[in-house]
Amino acid sequence: MKAIICNEFAPLDQLDYADLPDPVAAGDQVVIKVEAAGVNYPDGLLVQGQYQMKPDRPFVPGMEAAGVVESIGPDVKNLKVGDRVATICQLGGYAEKVVTEEGRVFPIGDMDGGDACALMVAYGTSHHALKQRADLKPGEVLVVLGAAGATGVAAIQIGKIMGARVIAVCSSEEKREIALKTGADEAIGYDNLKDQLKEMTGGKGADVVYDVVGGAAFDACSRSMARNGRLLIIGFASGTIPQFPVNLALVKEYAVVGVFWGNFTRAEPQVYADNMKELIGWYQTGKVKPVVEGRYPLADAANVLTRVLGRGATGKIVLEP
Asked: Which of 46, 99, 129, 152 minimizes the number of CB atoms within 10 Å of its CB?
């Protein structure tokens, strides 16, 4: 099979598109013939050695994939050959075939493969962040940074389902239009962010901030929180990990809350499974609709990751073997 191979932590242009032996299902594993592999910001960090997880090399990146079950191990109980499924595989998604444990596989029926990938990491992260970590309440003000990206779009849609007023923050007019079409109540830029949020909330501040950006945007939001607010730390797309003055949390009485979705899926597998069932149900009833911006050949992985890391992507991007 063809796959994208990271032989050593290195710049993205060092990724190889080459042949590997087909995977074999053992125990409770299934082999999936991949229709679509989701591209995520952490994938680009991972292959450069800049992510929390540092797998042994060589490895195939790719946290999520959708396709058709090609073979099953002897201990698989609930899946059969021919089922259309999606998986959180942690590694291995950027390939024509991927092997993963049955417990990480979800039936998707006739769902579009790209949409299914988006529901895995992007929507999974935002759902966990807003539901378990923020406990977002109806009527609260949710500020979403990086709101035109895959996780941002998910946060907007999920925030609206949960009854929040959603203020999207994006770097361009084009991206702000995407955020508004996705369901945001208002969309603003990053200039004078602290003053804008103060004015838009009548001086109260944000109840919840969803921050995938870090840097100066985090600094502005850390001074724009409401009492009992929750400032969610998801990532640092700006490239700058901010330093937090803890006196702000004391004086303004709000919480800074870390969100590490991958750790959540391992630590609380049943809650994670319940979350995915809810997300898939929302998709089936039209409450959420991923924005799949582009579909590219698997061989273009390095170029696609370069664009994602440069914050040039809007919505979800998938690779198709």
From this structure: 99
